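TASK: fixed-backbone design
INPUT:
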């Protein structure tokens, strides 16, 4: 059986890792992947990706890096994404992974106008989601965790936007029958979200945001997590 690839583009800050674990662990739990089915490749550390036809699917993590830096490892991964799209490989990118997928396929990524989006945010499901095999199960509004400074400002041609927020119009997009990406974090739980707000509180204050209010507004996001799990099940990646 081919492995499910977790493309690691970064790691959680050390204090968060020490208490809550790290991206591959959150992705495995969120997508309900068997531990013996996954293969983690740390592209930021220079590890080489297998050929797309050697894996069953790929999940692309977040990162503290910025897509606009055009780091060599990031651009190599973008090339791999293009090859994987040619193979129609099931792919789901999150945050940096979302931005990198759009960048790889011809979109434009840059800083989100108005500053960072962080906390448990309310998302709106668009009309285009009605015919989507996964997003059609979502209610008109649901909540998800987010923390990002950059965003997809212009989408690749042929992309369908499924979900937006008040701050970011491109929160969940579909690139084809097997490839999706989300600016929000379906793999986060509420404790992880609070840990990120605590870590970013000084930056938030400097930018005119109220971290105390944002912290208090954190809530569970079961529908965002369910979407991640359903993607995995839909493409035969999950354990059950």
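OUTPUT:
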């Amino acid at each position: 059986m081919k492995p499910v690839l977790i493309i690691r583009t970064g790691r959680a800050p050390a204090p968060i890792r020490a208490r809550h674990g790290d991206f591959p662990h959150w992705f495995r739990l969120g997508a309900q992947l068997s531990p013996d089915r996954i293969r983690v490749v740390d592209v930021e550390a220079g590890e080489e990706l297998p050929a797309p036809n050697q894996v069953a699917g790929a999940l692309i993590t977040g990162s503290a890096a910025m897509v606009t830096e055009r780091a060599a490892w990031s651009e190599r991964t973008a090339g791999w994404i293009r090859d994987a799209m040619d193979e129609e490989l099931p792919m789901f990118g999150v945050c940096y992974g979302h931005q990198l997928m759009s960048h790889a396929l011809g979109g434009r990524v840059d800083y989100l106008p108005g500053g960072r989006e962080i906390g448990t945010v309310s998302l709106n499901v668009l009309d285009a989601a009605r015919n989507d095999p996964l997003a059609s199960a979502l209610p008109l509004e649901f909540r998800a965790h987010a923390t990002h400074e950059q965003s997809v400002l212009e989408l690749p041609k042929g992309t369908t936007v499924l979900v937006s927020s008040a701050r970011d119009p491109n929160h969940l997009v579909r690139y084809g029958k097997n490839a999706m990406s989300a600016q929000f974090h379906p793999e986060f739980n509420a404790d992880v979200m609070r840990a990120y707000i605590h870590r970013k509180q000084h930056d938030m204050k400097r930018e005119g945001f109220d971290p105390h209010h944002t912290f208090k507004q954190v809530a569970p996001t079961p529908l965002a997590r369910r979407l991640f799990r359903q993607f995995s099940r839909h493409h035969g990646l999950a354990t059950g």
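COMMENT: The chain has a mean pLDDT of 97.
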